[in-house]
Amino acid sequence: MINIKSIKTVVPGKPVRQDTSCTLLSGSFGYDGMAEKIFENTKILSRHFVLHPIQWRTTSWQRLCEIYKERSVELSVDAGERLLKKGDIGNVGCMVFASCTGYMAPPPSFYIASGLGLNTNVRHQNLLGHGCSAFIPALKAGHDYIKANENKNRSSFKTTAIVIATELYSTCYSREATVEGIICNAIFGDASVAALVGNGHDGISIVDFECETVNEQAKILGLDWKKGELSVVLGKEVPTVGGDISKRVVEKMLKRNRLKISDIDSWIVHCGGTRVLNSVQETFNLTDENMEASWAIYERYGNTSSTSVGFVLESIWDKIEGYGIMLSFGPGFTCETALLKK
């Protein structure tokens, strides 16, 4: 069985209180009175940023790109160093990196692998543009590398894959004082997560994956260019569409594995926002206890995009027993799921 052997997360700097963010951004971008209500309704207590909100208005797009290049690698290496133990480095044969908040070529994985001291023949896979759902397909890429090579000569096959997702929303925030812009600036935060995937009996087993993309809803979620800068697109339809599509995806995966919703003990749900979390809870008739970990991460860090399910998984790592479902949403419009077992 291929397992997630371990997982580690990291956030930059000190937490910035939600009311502080609201005050600073309202002054910078001329928000009206509704901004305070929007920030309060998020239910977020604090978030972390590589670029403090007080600097958002005065930072050029060129500088934002430079900050992404510098800090995405730095934060990813930090997460990777917390993950890898002595002896792990020589066994890593695949480096998977996921992000949607910036772009580099060569891609970040090359710099991260160098920073971690990985072998120069490590395989690189970079998932760009998958948004909040990216960590699950990134895990699948690591899983598939192990699966494709596990029967090869052990002397040449490196037995593990490292999967890292890093998102820096503070390098692609919205300068627009629209409802959409205010909501995005009120919920997203910066973070990194690293997971080690490989064979063995330690960790949490990866049983299956399933996904679905609703192509006609491609424009409701993602990142796009606005006035020459990269900015988040967040349609009001996301929670409704997310509930419908997640039900189909989860039921398909459970049926294939001869399981029912009642067989699932743990839920690792993307911290997309209050409406997203409530929609998932209602769709699957989950208890408050089922959703407790996702709500706790959301309140403490906000929506950290692709990294959020990794934060939830790490927070309940020692408590998981039996089957668990990891679930996230992203551009496309896409729902990604993974069936786990411990």
List the SSEs and their pairings:
Blueprint: E1 2-10, E2 16-17, H1 18-29, H2 34-41, E3 46-47, H3 61-83, E4 92-99, H4 108-116, E5 123-128, H5 135-149, E6 160-167, H6 179-187, E7 191-199, E8 204-213, E9 221-226, E10 229-234, H7 238-256, E11 264-269, H8 274-284, H9 288-301, H10 308-315, E12 323-330, E13 334-341
Helix pairs in contact: 1-2, 3-4, 7-8, 9-10
Verbal overview:
With 342 residues, this protein is α+β, with helices and mostly antiparallel strands. 37% of the residues lie in helices and 26% in strands. The protein has helices at 18-29, 34-41, 61-83, 108-116, 135-149, 179-187, 238-256, 274-284, 288-301, 308-315; strands at 2-10, 16-17, 46-47, 92-99, 123-128, 160-167, 191-199, 204-213, 221-226, 229-234, 264-269, 323-330, 334-341. The mean pLDDT is 91.
Oligomer: single chain
Shape: globular
- Total number of helices: 10
The helix-strand sequence is EEHHEHEHEHEHEEEEHEHHHEE
Helix content: 25-40%
Largest sheet, in brief, is: 9 strands, mixed
Q: Residue-averaged pLDDT, rounded?
A: 91
Q: In total, how many domains does the architecture comprise?
A: 2
CATH fold annotation of the largest domain = Peroxisomal Thiolase, Chain A, domain 1
- Give me the side-by-side strand order of the main sheet: 5-4-6-7-1-8-13-12-11
CATH class of the largest domain: Alpha Beta
What structural category characterises the helix and strand content?
Answer: alpha+beta
Radius of gyration, CA atoms, in whole angstroms: 19 Å
How many strands in all?
13
